[in-house]
From TrEMBL, chain A:
GO terms for biological process: RNA polymerase II preinitiation complex assembly. PANTHER family: TRANSCRIPTION INITIATION FACTOR TFIID, TRANSCRIPTION INITIATION FACTOR TFIID SUBUNIT 2. It comes from Cyprinus carpio carpio. Residues 522-640 form the Transcription initiation factor TFIID subunit 2 Ig-like domain. Gene3D superfamilies: Neutral Protease Domain 2, tricorn interacting facor f3 domain. The keyword 4Fe-4S does not apply. This is Transcription initiation factor TFIID subunit 2. One of its GO terms (cellular component) is transcription factor TFIID complex.
UniProtKB/TrEMBL annotation, chain B:
Gene3D superfamilies: Histone, subunit A. One of its GO terms (biological process) is transcription initiation at RNA polymerase II promoter. Belongs to the TAF8 family. Residues 240-252 have a biased composition (Acidic residues). One of its GO terms (cellular component) is transcription factor TFIID complex. SMART domains: BTP. Its main location: cytoplasm. Transmembrane segments: none annotated. One of its GO terms (molecular function) is protein heterodimerization activity. It comes from Cyprinus carpio carpio. This is Transcription initiation factor TFIID subunit 8. It is found in: Cytoplasm; Nucleus. InterPro entries: BTP, Histone-fold, TAF8, TFIID_su8_C. The lineage of its organism: Eukaryota, Metazoa, Chordata, Craniata, Vertebrata.
Length: 1165, 328
């Protein structure tokens, strides 16, 4: 079909290995058995490869956790090696415990199987008969039979434990993963830049539906009519990571507006699906209109699954969502959230699935564009206020993250391979691969990417921006229809340079400096602004300073917009931020002093009356804003007088300005601030999120003004006026949530009011009774909408009202000495929580709030602190939101009570819980609320914990990239980058550097630590160090690596299978037998390290030294073989594999494929 | 009356049958026993009139049986005669005709009745039929409409099936109403949850007093998302009450989706998708429509165009597929 497209090397680090380049252009997957009972999958794949180089003798593919039965190349049995260094990052015998070491080892391991660099876990030897053909660059077909048994990653089986058939039980399975994770469920080239066409076949139970990418060509019954085969064709070239699958007894809904769009949900949820999907067509229309491009695929499918890995994941022509996004028409709060998720998914269909990326460092373009057009959708659907609010929120998020954790780099370039060149030395992980990134960082990365796209839009205008997108899409769709020239397909891959070129072609503008500042460089800008008005010169003297020395910041040079609202109107000034100029003089327009009666013109042309009595009589300045359009990724701390903030809040129409003013007013607790905030609260033209923010600010101000506060508690009379009955002001009206703005306000005000405190620092009795009355009189019978979120927030309000209990002599908390107010609160919570069992609320919001309230009661010492309740709610089988809330409480308990048993319980859950999302959340919540940190000593910090966590990230999380990075994050939070302080002093070790033939001090030993007892490291250690620190390009070394790693891999598996050590020895002997009579050439290397191994060690250690020994044989053999003995090598490798397979066949003797592997031709020859 | 005799004879058999096995105390049995006894008294007095001093039990029984048969026959014939003339109640003349038919000289009867030596038998004590106490009449009973014969039972009191009028002034004060509704609901909820907590497993916040704030134990469910996502029945009910338009919408879409047919092609499609889903739960209401005749509505023309691969017919397996040979 197609030929080869050269893929630019993303990093320059990995030199291309000539033996190894190939292109797969046609891909066929067939999964012919999915067993829900055993959670297993059997199938085969067939790749069509067009060799692009001479001497293609080895093909590397990605494959994880698949059991491979046989590999054939053009119908000839081909030997193969399966070797995955990421299974165990640092080898078991290592006593290294510092994170720097781990991170570099992990990066190296991921690089070693990186498909973009031509690597892979599965190495297939092309049969020698085909070499000639390969030289002629003829098509090769690689056929691989594989199975998956109880996959821990890649595919997730949900099999509820109830009676009935699998369909009745709503059992389903779906693919998932972080970035390119398709290798977890079938062997492939798991790269976003390797495009090919697809043919997919899935045979499933007749009661099930298999949903996958592309067009469903036909569905065929099997002979016995008990199963159906779904045949899919995806003619648009697509990368393997964009392929997905979902199988289950789904209910099918054809979109009533677009018949080529089909929605799938689990049984019984169809009414919710109808409701949820009723507006999808609007999103489609919007994107197609702005991009002036039709949706690229001929069909679209949405599948809603339980226990989803992420809320939204997009694949070619289909998206998989969490079933928890479905909602009925009665639910208010979830609706916009779900719409946003759908919009995100659809944006990624264009940029991310249809258009893929050239390399990992181009990811920002895809995430940026999809995030940017999603923002345009938000602007259109939810309004400009919502959009600007969102942009501010995102900007605040990224600024906060970068200032805290260090910069986020969108377009990393990796020159050389040395550690010194790490573009992000401040991070405890490498950003070289998507799989080494912390999840939090990746989220921030996406956030920054779309903000930068918006900056580009600011520079070149939206029109040009959309033209660029259109150009990318139309080039790609032309390319996708070209079936016979695969070099055309590169148009479907976006690269940073290609994108920038498009921009300059379309707009004719040079955005180089912008890209350099925000894309090639990490960090945000931190401005401090202050001003003085010079009356004599009638000039505003503005001073803008920058902090560009702290972590996560960068220096900004360039234009900045300043808006000054004067009495005579609003004026924009563009100042130039230069190297050394801090002060800027801005001439003022308003010469004359205020002319009473005159209206004041605003930026938007509106003219308003203002009460000017508050302002400084000498100054015409009402307020000043720096960078009002957020066209710099920055944080601005600006000083202006309180009355100026108040004017800004009341009269500036931009929601961002209003929000900035509200945050600034927190430090001005004056009656004037109070009045300004109350006015905003009452103004129903004002954006509801601004009003919500004003509630909380008002509560803070009221607390600061406690002694001078007059009148009823803040917001009480306002709430009464807005939401209570006219005739009896203590009773709230029956609920009517038809006006969403006031609904959100009604929900929020009690929560903010509960934060009020009196002189004793207690929540005022009046407020508490008020909230209790709201709960009592809450009446939803006449409401069209559900009040579950409202009731949940009323419980949150009760939680907010709690203050620490007065404890006398640490007495035990009993029912009798319960505070009367707390007793009332507790009664409400008990009733709510119990009612929830009988009439559960949507997403169990009430249970979630109750659990938080109970934890707060415990934490404040009102009731005995006890995690058992939370632990029961955290069990598998509760709704996921409830579990998360319960786990959060357990994590908080673990920190406060320093409980090692609870920490252990949590870590066990991380290893054993069936839901991936829960595992991920436990680790990230632990990292956010850690039981201890590196800064302080803790009893919890001990060697066993270090070992456990190390094991977790080293090998325990190899099936989930995200989880492994979470574990790394937690390890970093707890122990930092260096060796944990609770560990005993490390042994002094010499590391033998084989390459330079000299010994160096063990890098684990840091200078601050004293020397330990002299002891040498085990022999394999130096090899490993050597390999990591000095990756070499010689083939010898590469081969050595491979073998070394496969050795570790086998060892690891044997360990996992818990087999006695004898088979291990037989394995070893087998090798020895084959290689007898050969003189190891590198024997001196082995000899060098051997004496270092202490003799009286554990048996484990001695096994490992055997491995070291064995490795050298192996190495030697590899070395020799390079010259001539190809056949010999085959034999050896196959022995090696089949040995492994023989073991497997014990366990899977009933599998048809396993029997065949014994009859492998390579064994018989 | 003759009626009762006929019925009596019918029930007599059963009564004697049951009487033979055991003494029964049911009212019918009592009635039969009383009648029998009365007849025996009559027979005895007749015998005494004729000059007998004693009689064998068997003879007595036979005579009583004959007497009873005779009276029964008179009754039966009298009824037949009266019904023959399209009446329902026998008159004296009916009885006379009957007696004549049976060969009895009616003229002798007055003489016999006025004979001097006849014995007077005291009437059997009449037990007052237990009077059903009259129910309290509340309100005006409805009279029968014209098409209901008057012998049909009367309507019951209106309060039992129309409404119960109360005579207390309804509370209309808003505050009190709300107050009452709130506390009522709260009481119900509290009582219900307490009950549930008492009858099931609980968790407690206090170790010293487990009963203080009982929490119903959290039980994991196999499919937790169902209860968390689907609206509860209560909410659905509220929705129906407050808003019927939305429901209309829903039925509307259902109609849309089920009006997929008209031409043959789509018909087969429908059938096929039905086939494909036969195995799935039957309660699924779906895009798929029943295979039977569907009346197309106005929107159907548009719907005809639906050609979604997931609604298409599942094909039968045709021969061995080439690529499958690798596996099997």
């Amino acid at each position: 079909m197609l030929s080869y497209k050269q893929n630019p090397d993303p990093s320059g680090l990995h030199s291309r290995r000539c033996m190894n380049r190939k292109k797969d252009k046609g891909f066929e997957i067939c999964i012919n058995n999915i067993n829900f009972q055993r959670k297993s999958v059997i199938g085969y794949v067939e790749l069509t490869i067009f060799p692009t180089v001479m001497n293609l003798n080895r093909i590397k593919l990605n494959s994880k956790q698949c059991r491979i039965y046989r590999v054939r190349v053009n119908d000839l049995e081909a030997p193969f090696i399966y070797n995955d260094p990421t299974l165990e990052v640092c080898h078991h015998e290592s006593k290294q415990r510092n994170l720097n070491y781990f991170s570099s080892a992990y990066t190296a391991a991921v690089s070693a199987v990186d498909p973009d660099a031509g690597n892979g876990e599965l190495s297939i030897k092309v049969p020698s008969e085909l070499w000639k053909q390969g030289d002629e660059m003829k098509v090769m077909k690689v056929y691989i039979e594989f199975s998956l048994d109880q996959p821990k990653g890649g595919l997730h089986f949900v099999v509820p434990d109830v009676d009935g058939s699998m369909a009745e039980r709503a059992a389903h399975v779906f693919s998932f993963g972080n970035q390119n994770s398709t290798r977890f469920w079938f062997p492939c080239v798991d790269s976003y830049s390797e495009l090919c066409t697809w043919k997919l076949e899935f045979t499933v139970d007749a009661s099930m539906v298999a949903v996958s990418c592309g067009d469903l060509v036909e569905t065929v019954y099997t002979h016995d009519m008990r199963k159906k085969t779904f045949h899919y064709m995806l003619p648009i070239p697509t990368a393997a990571p964009n392929i997905s699958l979902a199988v289950g007894p789904f209910e099918i809904l054809v979109d009533p507006y677009m018949h080529e769009v089909t929605h799938f949900c689990l049984p019984q949820l169809l009414p919710l699906l109808k409701q949820t999907m009723s507006y999808l067509h609007e999103i489609f229309e919007f994107y197609e209109e702005i991009l002036t491009c039709r949706y690229p695929y001929s069909c679209f499918k949405t599948v809603f699954v339980d226990e989803a890995y992420v809320q939204v994941s997009s694949y070619a022509s289909m998206s998989i969502f969490s079933t928890n996004l479905l909602h009925s028409g009665m639910i208010i709060d979830q609706t916009p959230v779900t719409r946003r998720c759908l919009a995100q998914a659809l944006a990624q269909q264009f940029f991310g699935c249809f258009i893929s990326r050239m390399s990992w460092s181009d990811e920002w373009v895809l995430k940026g564009i999809s995030g940017y057009i999603y923002g345009l959708y938000l602007k259109k659907t939810f309004g400009v206020n919502e959009y600007r609010h969102w942009i501010k929120e995102e900007l605040d998020k990224i600024v906060e993250y970068e200032l805290k954790m260090g910069g986020v780099l969108l377009h990393p370039t990796f020159s050389g391979g040395k550690e010194k060149d790490n573009p992000t030395p401040h991070l405890h992980f490498s950003i070289r691969h998507p799989h080494t990134l912390s999840w939090e960082y990746y989220k921030m990365f996406q956030c920054k990417a779309h903000l930068v796209m918006r900056l580009i839009e600011n520079r070149i205008s939206m029109e040009f921006m959309l033209q660029v997108f259109n150009k990318l899409l139309s080039l790609a769709s032309t390319a996708s229809s070209q079936k016979y020239q695969s070099h055309m397909w590169s148009q479907m891959l976006v690269s940073t340079s290609g994108f920038l070129k498009s921009i300059s072609n379309v707009s004719g503008k040079d955005i180089g400096p912008l890209i350099k500042q925000w894309v090639d460089q990490s960090g945000v800008v931190k401005f401090f602004g202050s001003f003085a008005f010079n009356r004599k010169r009638n000039v505003l003297e503005l001073e803008i300073r920058q902090d560009y020395t702290s972590s996560g910041t960068q220096k900004y040079v360039g234009p900045i917009k300043v808006t000054v609202q004067e009495l005579d109107g609003s004026f924009n000034h563009t100042l130039q931020i230069e190297e050394n100029s801090l002060k800027h003089d801005i001439p003022c327009h308003s010469k004359s002093r205020r002319n009473k009666k005159k209206k004041i013109p605003l930026m938007n042309g509106e003219e308003v009356d203002m009460d000017l009595s508050a302002m400084d009589a000498d100054s015409p300045l009402l307020w000043i804003r720096i960078d009002p359009d957020m066209s710099i990724l920055r944080k601005v701390e600006f000083e202006q007088a309180d009355f100026m903030w108040q004017y800004q809040l009341r009269f500036e129409r931009d929601v961002v300005a209003q929000e900035e003013a509200i945050s600034a007013l927190e430090i001005f607790p004056t009656p004037a601030s109070r009045l300004a905030l109350t006015d905003i609260l009452e103004q129903d033209q004002c954006f509801y999120k601004v009003r919500i923010q004003a509630c909380f600010c008002l509560a803070k101000i009221a607390n600061s003004m406690m002694s001078t506060w007059t009148g009823p508690p803040a917001m009480k009379s306002l709430f009464t006026r807005m939401f209570c009955c006219k005739s009896c002001p203590n009773i709230v009206k029956t609920n009517n949530f038809i006006n969403f703005q006031s609904y959100f306000l009604q929900k929020t005000m009690p929560v903010a009011m509960a934060l009020l405190r009196d002189v004793q620092n207690l929540c005022p009795k009046e407020v508490l009774n008020f909230i209790l009355d709201l709960i009592k009189y809450n009446d939803n019978r006449k409401n069209k909408f559900s009040d579950n979120y409202y009731r949940a927030e009323l419980i949150d309000a009760l939680t907010n009202s709690l203050t620490p209990a007065i404890s006398i002599n640490n007495e035990v908390r009993t029912v009798d000495n319960l505070n009367t107010d707390v007793r009332l609160i507790l009664e409400e919570i008990t009733r709510f929580l119990n009612m929830e069992k009988l009439l559960p609320s949507y997403r169990n919001t009430i249970t979630v709030s109750c659990l938080r309230a109970i934890r707060m009661l415990q934490k404040n010492g009102h009731i005995p602190s006890d995690p058992s309740l939370f632990k029961s709610y955290a069990q598998y089988g509760h709704f996921v939101d409830v579990r998360i809330a319960a786990l959060e409480a357990v994590i908080d308990y673990t920190r406060v009570d320093r409980s090692s048993s609870e920490l252990q319980w949590l870590l066990d859950l991380v290893q054993n819980d069936p839901v991936h999302y829960i595992r991920h959340e436990i680790l990230s919540m632990l990292a956010k609320n850690p039981p201890f940190t590196k800064a302080a000593d803790s009893l919890l910090c001990n060697e066993a914990l270090v070992d456990q966590l190390w094991k977790l990230m080293n090998s325990g999380t190899c099936h989930d990239w995200r989880l492994r990075c979470d574990a790394v994050n937690l390890y970093y939070t707890l122990f930092g980058l260096t060796r944990p302080s609770c560990l005993p002093l490390p042994e002094l070790g010499l590391v033998l550097n084989l390459k330079e033939k000299k010994a160096v001090l063990n890098p684990t030993i840091k200078s601050e630590q004293g020397p330990g007892g002299p002891e040498y490291r085990p022999s394999s250690q130096p090899n490993f160090e050597n390999r990591l620190t000095f990756p070499t390009q010689e083939e010898e070394d590469i081969d050595m690596d491979t073998v070394h790693d496969s050795q570790a891999f086998i060892y690891h598996h044997l360990n996992m299978l818990e087999r006695p050590s004898t088979p291990d020895i037989t394995l070893f002997q087998l090798f020895a037998l084959i290689f007898t009579g050969k003189e190891p050439s590198s024997v001196e290397q082995a000899m060098l390290s051997m004496p270092g191994t202490p003799m009286p060690t554990l048996s484990k250690e001695s096994t490992s030294s055997k491995h070291g020994d064995h490795h050298h044989h192996h190495h030697h053999h590899e070395h020799k073989k390079k010259k001539k003995k190809h056949k010999h090598k085959h034999k050896h490798k196959h022995k090696h594999e089949s040995k492994d397979k023989d073991r497997d066949s014990h366990a899977f003797s009933n599998s048809p494929a396993s029997g065949r592997s014994i009859r492998s031709p390579s064994l018989s020859d | 009356m003759a009626d009762s005799v006929v019925m009596g004879s019918g029930s007599l058999n059963s009564g004697s049958r049951s009487g033979s096995s055991k003494t029964s105390t049911s009212p019918t049995d009592n009635y039969q026993l009383a009648r029998r006894r009365t007849l025996q008294v009559v027979v005895s007095s007749l015998l005494t009139e004729c000059g007998f001093e004693s009689a064998e039990k068997a003879a007595m029984e036979t005579l009583t049986e004959m007497m009873q048969s005779y009276i029964t026959e008179v009754g039966r014939c009298a009824k037949a005669t009266c019904e023959h003339t399209a009446r329902s109640t026998p008159t004296l003349s009916d009885v006379v005709i009957t007696l004549v038919e049976m060969g009895f000289n009616v003229d002798t009867l007055p003489v016999y009745a006025k004979r001097s030596q006849r014995m007077v038998i005291t009437a059997p004590p009449i037990t007052n039929a237990s009077v059903v106490p009259k129910a309290l009449i509340a309100g005006q009973k409805r009279t029968h409409p014209t098409y209901i014969p008057s012998h049909f039972p009367e309507f019951p009191d209106p309060h039992t099936y129309i409404k119960t009028p109360t005579f207390r002034e309804p509370v209309s004060d808003y505050q009190v109403v709300r107050e009452k509704a709130a506390s009522q609901r709260r009481d119900v909820e509290r009582a219900l949850t307490r009950f549930m907590a008492k009858t099931g497993e609980t968790e407690s916040l206090f170790k010293d007093d487990i009963s203080a704030f009982p929490l119903i134990a959290a039980k994991p469910s196999a499919i937790p998302y169902l209860s968390a996502l689907l609206p509860s029945e209560l909410e659905l009910q509220t929705l129906e009450e407050t808003d019927s338009s939305e429901q209309d919408d829903q039925t509307d879409t259902e109609n849309n989706s089920s009006n997929v047919s008209q031409d043959d092609q789509t018909d087969t499609e429908n059938n096929s998708s039905n086939v494909s889903q036969d195995d799935q739960s039957a309660d699924k209401e779906n895009v798929v429509l029943p295979p039977g005749g569907v009346v197309p509505t106005g929107k159907a023309n548009e719907e005809n165009m639906i050609d979604n691969p997931y609604l298409r017919l599942v094909k039968k397996h045709k021969g061995r597929r080439k690529k499958l040979k690798f596996i099997y």
